[in-house]
Amino acid sequence: MTRSSLPWLELVHAHATLRIDDDRLTRLILALLEDENRTCESLGVILADRQTVLELNQTYLQHDYPTDVLSFLLEPDDGVSPLQGEIYVDLDTALERHEEFSASFEDEALRYVIHGLLHLLGYEDDSQDARQRMHEIENRYLGRP
Question: Which CATH code is given to the segment(s) 2-142?
Fold first, then answer.
């Protein structure tokens, strides 16, 4: 478990072997929150394995299939109050799929974190237009066209 230099951010390395850079992850989170004009009271980013994320998906969302990222608001979000949430990232999927998207493993995992944070901030991906908008935002933070 890693407490970042920010008292409200907890980065948890729950995967047995895979890691991403804490500093880069923290910078991306801060940039996105600043651009969205939001603050956090507490944010946990749990970098986990496929089985952990699958079990959470089954237990809390009743979805019996794997997913790359899950986001949970810990308190209802009114769009103004400091955010409280958790993001669970499946690093196994990032490792398996990064080449498919011509991305590094770390960029793919960071994309999942950004995607999860966007969901916590109220973004949806329930239509093609909404998915495209989220993908464009993810690309901007990852420095890709």
Answer: 3.40.390.30
